[in-house]
Specification:
This protein has 403 residues and is of the alpha/beta class. It folds into 3 domains: 64 residues; 64 residues, no CATH class; 223 residues, Ribonuclease H-like superfamily/Ribonuclease H (Nucleotidyltransferase, domain 5). It contains 14 helices and 12 strands. Strands 4, 5, 6, 7, 8, 9, 10, 11 and 12 form a 9-stranded mixed sheet that branches.
Length: 403
């Protein structure tokens, strides 16, 4: 066979292999290669080797397959290269040791976040010998529960000495109420939103060049104003309620939102309950020092005929409030990239928020006007049937009905 004919045959075999290889299994490729080598004759194995990149041993194995020496399996049971994590049993441990210094935990999430790049981790592992690629590091970290993240604003100031003790107090009380089938709700006001054709952070799919056009400047619309969504999250039932207020975020608004939740949702599930447990932040309209908050809760307790228990989170820990990461974050995801042009849009977007875990939210517009600066007299304060707990009574208390 001349050099020219060998070159021509090599070109033909190469073209044929590029076309057929995607349609063949591993066994099929080696049998095809063996068939071609036999058809070419002398020098056939060299040509097929160059044309396909298949090893001589693979082509020889194909010859044996053609003779019927191996027809039951494509590959011997347990054959093939072992996974690196198996052949190098210390690899996983070494990766975790390297990232340990940069690992930070979130108390409300099982995820661990790693801030070192996979290439740098691989470089440290490969200092003495080639052990791993950055791609394998990435897959291993993913299996271990790590995920690259940017910095997060979660530290709100100094920690109170009884912070953890208060968390444990709340946790124990939540379990006790759930055991009695009494309602446990987490409450808070979501960030106020400008109503109008303003840019909303995030993106949504649309045809190229047809993105929604919004105002250049975010000056408050004097007519539409702002929306103040006050939320109630039922920790046990994994559902929520949001009153979309257009007035001031006051204690009256907060308690009226809880009242509306009860009649719209709570009553359906907790008709026989005699007590209600509220988890709230230490500040804002439902703050531990807000006198009007307690006055309005007394009115609600009288109206419902139920004892209302309240626990506030310690200073600087509002992000631990369940409603923040169980409900509000999903509302923000649902309306990202969508201008909140009017209150109807806001109510609909909140009410159509869903999650894989089964979260359902109902929302309603609250058109009431809530004046600010209301003063609570000493007589009104003294008339509250409040009982403070022996452990941080300023954070933990209950208000009993007076009728």
């Amino acid at each position: 066979m001349s050099n020219i004919s060998k070159t021509a045959i090599l070109s033909v075999v190469t073209q044929k292999y590029q076309i057929i290889k995607l349609h063949l299994s591993e066994r099929g490729r080696r049998i095809w290669a063996a068939t071609e080598a036999k058809a070419i004759g002398s020098g056939g194995r060299n040509i097929v080797n160059k044309a396909t990149g298949l090893a001589f041993a693979t082509i020889q194995r194909g010859m044996l397959d053609l003779e019927g020496a191996s027809i039951e399996r494509i590959r011997k049971k347990g054959g093939g290269r072992k996974k690196k994590i198996i052949s190098d049993p210390l690899l996983k441990q070494d990766i975790e040791r390297i990232v340990e210094s940069s690992t930070r935990g979130d108390p409300e999430s099982p995820l661990l976040w790693c801030s070192k790049s996979t290439r740098n981790i691989a470089a440290e592992l490969n200092t003495e010998s080639d052990r791993v690629s950055h791609a394998l590091v990435s897959r291993t970290l993913d299996d271990m529960g790590y995920n690259l993240q940017s910095n997060r604003k979660v530290q709100e100031g100094g920690e109170h000495i009884d912070r953890d003790a208060q968390f444990n107090f709340i946790n124990d009380k939540v379990k006790a109420f759930q055991a009695k089938k009494h309602p446990v709700i987490s409450v808070d006001t979501k960030k106020k939103e400008n109503i109008g054709n303003f840019k909303n952070i995030g993106q949504e799919y649309c045809k190229q060049g047809e993105a929604t056009k919004v105002n250049v400047y975010d000056f408050i619309d004097p007519v539409k104003g702002k929306a103040a969504p006050y939320g109630i999250y039922d920790i046990t039932k994994n559902n929520g309620w949001v009153s979309v207020g257009v007035s001031s975020d006051t204690a009256q608004f907060a308690v009226n939102s809880i009242r509306t939740w009860w009649y719209e949702m709570g009553l359906e599930f907790y008709k026989e309950a005699t007590e209600l447990y509220i988890n709230a932040d230490g500040g804002g309209s439902n703050g531990s020092r807000v006198k009007l908050w307690k006055v309005e809760l007394q009115k609600l307790a009288n109206e419902l005929g139920k004892t209302i228990h309240v626990s506030h989170f310690p200073p600087g820990t509002s992000k631990w409030n369940k409603i923040e990461h169980k409900m509000f974050c999903f509302i923000s995801k649902n309306w990202r990239g969508r201008p909140l042009i009017d209150t109807a849009t806001i109510v609909n977007l909140i009410g159509n928020t869903r999650t894989k875990s089964g979260l359902k939210i109902r929302a309603k517009l609250d058109n009431n006007l809530y004046p600010t600066g209301l003063k609570v007299s000493k007589e009104e304060l003294a008339n509250i049937s409040i009982e403070k707990d022996s452990f941080h009574g300023e954070w933990n208390y209950k208000i009993a009905p007076q009728n």
